[in-house]
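sry for the spam today, last one i promise. struct tokens for design, 332 residues
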């Protein structure tokens, strides 16, 4: 249950009520809010004198639920807005990893040419093997920041673990929590303390319920700017890296109030299928796409097989706007 409190209640009283009702307390920019376990369906007697309004939900998908707010949240990053009434689909493009200034600059020139507003690249890489490229760390963040200054786009990069979450928050315009870090509640809670947008990726063995509940850790910290990213789940199939769950995307659009992003690159795992999956996602009216591109994918230090080269990306991008226009969206 979500409870909006009346104004001018002393902080000490709110804390007391939160403890007594096993509730999380935060301020949403307008009012103080208590979030109780969803099993509570009737407003407790102790809260009736201080409650302005209350909302009961069926599960612990609460703040993200359309039962709480039927209107999709609007998120603004720089001069880009998604969600709300915008009908925008944001393209997020760039290499899997920051490898060098020259590599980032080559991709950045293409992103600028296509008037794409958001550039992605990883600096801390949560690799499956300890013997593979782990990222450039803070040096990579500095390279991204310099590219942002030069080309005037937003940058998104990933938090691998809690040891560098503050560093990523400092540098990035959008904080990415990857599939392997989705369950790290220390990252989620820290990201809840900032107002910077957070892109939360679905774990590859995660149910939709678990996925959105992970977002609740961020939302209940007071950060309303959360995007859900479908990036493929692990199934019995072995011919693709993962299986892109567009059924899950339809669920998230129908039952949550958060913008939905699709990452076809990680789902497919092979560049030959990325363009088709991107077009399918556009046709679903998603709020954003994350597609990897690299000057020389065959030489990439991570995820070489799934990254489009610059010409392939340019060609694919040219096919997307007509699909977006056909459903009343604008690709930005």
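last one done:
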């Amino acid at each position: 249950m979500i409870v909006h409190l009346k104004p001018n209640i002393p902080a000490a009283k709110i804390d007391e009520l939160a403890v007594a009702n096993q509730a999380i307390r935060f301020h949403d920019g307008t009012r103080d809010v208590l979030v109780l376990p969803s099993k509570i369906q009737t407003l407790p007697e102790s809260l009736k004198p201080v409650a302005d309004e209350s909302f009961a939900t069926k599960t612990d998908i609460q703040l993200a639920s359309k039962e709480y707010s039927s209107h999709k949240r609007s998120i603004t990053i720089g001069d880009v807005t998604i969600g709300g009434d915008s009908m925008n689909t944001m393209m997020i493009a760039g290499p899997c990893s920051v490898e060098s200034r020259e590599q980032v600059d080559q991709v950045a020139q293409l992103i600028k040419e296509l008037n794409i507003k958001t550039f992605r690249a990883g600096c801390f890489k949560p690799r499956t093997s300890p013997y593979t490229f782990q990222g450039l760390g803070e040096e990579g963040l500095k390279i991204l920041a310099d590219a942002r200054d030069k080309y005037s786009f937003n940058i998104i990069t990933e938090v691998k673990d809690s040891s560098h979450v503050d560093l990523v928050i400092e540098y990035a315009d959008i904080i990415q929590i990857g599939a392997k870090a989705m369950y790290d509640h220390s990252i989620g809670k820290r990201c809840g303390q900032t107002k910077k947008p957070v892109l939360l990726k679905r774990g590859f063995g995660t149910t939709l319920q678990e996925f959105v509940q992970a977002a609740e850790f961020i939302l209940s910290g007071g950060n309303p700017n959360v995007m859900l990213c479908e990036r493929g789940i692990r199934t019995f199939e072995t011919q693709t890296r993962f299986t892109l769950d567009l059924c899950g995307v339809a669920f998230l659009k129908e039952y949550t109030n958060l913008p939905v992003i699709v990452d076809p690159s990680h789902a497919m795992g092979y560049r030959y299928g990325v363009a088709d999956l991107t077009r399918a996602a556009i046709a679903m009216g998603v709020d954003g796409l994350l597609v990897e591109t690299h000057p020389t994918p065959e030489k990439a230090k991570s995820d070489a097989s799934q990254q489009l080269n610059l010409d392939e990306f340019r060609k694919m991008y040219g096919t997307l706007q007509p699909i977006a226009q056909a459903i009343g969206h604008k690709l930005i």
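The first helix runs from residue 11 to 20. ok im logging off now
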